[in-house]
Amino acid sequence: MSLAAVPEAVHVRAPGKINVYLGVGGRHDDGYHSLATVFQAVSLYEDVIAYPDDGFSLSVSGIDDPSTVPVDDRNLAMRAAKMLAAATGYTAGVHLELRKSVPVAGGMGGGSADAAAALVACDALWNTGLSPQRLHELAARLGADVPFALHGGTAVGTGRGDQLNPALARGRFDWVLVTSEAGLSTPAIYARLDEHRAQNGALADDPPLSLDVPIPVLQALRAGDPHSLAACMYNDLEVPALLERPSLDEVIKAGLEAGALSGIVSGSGPTIAFLCESPESARYVQGELQASGRVALHVHGPVAGARIISA
Ligand code: ATP
Fold it and tell me: What is the distance between the alpha carbons of residues 49 and 94, in angstroms, rounded to a whole number?
């Protein structure tokens, strides 16, 4: 590779996600749960810019409290860059600039989007030319939600959520997201779920259930029909998220009163995702929620996965 081939910087954008459906099965010995989920990538993006450097460093902007996002090896984007370097034998480094828009610990896979973006950005910056399949393998090693952030669109995730199959989705779905200042810890919400199930007679370490995404969810997506989709959106993590943060119940009620078709905890929360009938209806719901002092964002899906904006 000649020096002239090295770009000055590579800018990659990757989307946050909503779990339109999330069924959680039994817990495996390694602590992971089996999942059957439908992801939809939405138009709330993480921007990652990779600059050539001798070592590895990372900076973060777009967040109110810098202490919530680590800038060392605990950061998923940093781990992604180092994993790619190790996998390809690349010997120099990178400076990663993270411009965050997806709420931290919000249940929308922001860290996973950063990791997917970092993989794509470093692969382009370093000219390592990984195949989509190799990128997918590295993504799956980084975290269950990372492969989806690479692919985007609408997809069914099984296994730990990392075995992906594209789902047909027609048209666009309009969502209003209500974010919370304080995040929720994903492991804590899964632990709450296990506890709740144990108290209600199910054993947390039962053999993994055979899980399937219900056909009506896939039919509603294929038809592009928000009314049908609203009727079958579901999240097994909603009960533990509401137990952990009871005030989210008020948020859901407020969105429904404002005219949303349905409201659901996104992933492990605390972001609430409201599905709306149309862009106009979403703007109205957003306005009503903002008027009551909440942070409400109007986004749409599905959108593309991690992609290069400039190089
Ligand atoms: P999940 O993918 O488990 O649903 P989430 O979307 O709820 O996660 P993230 O914002 O991805 O939450 O991050 C959860 C935690 O991971 C944060 O509290 C932070 O400590 C750590 N973290 C590591 N890397 C990142 C990153 N690039 N951006 C944000 N948080 C990160």
Answer: 10
Is 11:129 a contact under the CB 8 Å cutoff?
Answer: no
For 173-301, which CATH class? alpha beta
Ligand 1 pocket member 118 (CB < 6 A): no
Q: How far is CA 298 from the centre of its chain?
A: 16
33, HSE (Cβ side, Cα atoms, 13 Å): 21
Q: Which residue has the tokens 């078709």?
A: 261
Read off the pLDDT of residues 19-43 as tens digits, 9 standing for 90 and up: 999 999 888 888 888 899 999 999 9
CATH code for residues 3-168: 3.30.230.10
| Ligand 1 atom closest to residue 106's alpha carbon, by position in its atom list | 7
* Parts of the chain belonging to CATH 3.30.70.890: 173-301
CB 283 within 8 A of CB 295: no
Which residue has the CA at smallest separation from atom 26 of ligand 1?
A: 111
- What is the rounded CA–CA span in Å between residue 42 and residue 66? 24
Which residue spans of the chain are classified as CATH 3.30.230.10? 3-168
pTM: 0.93
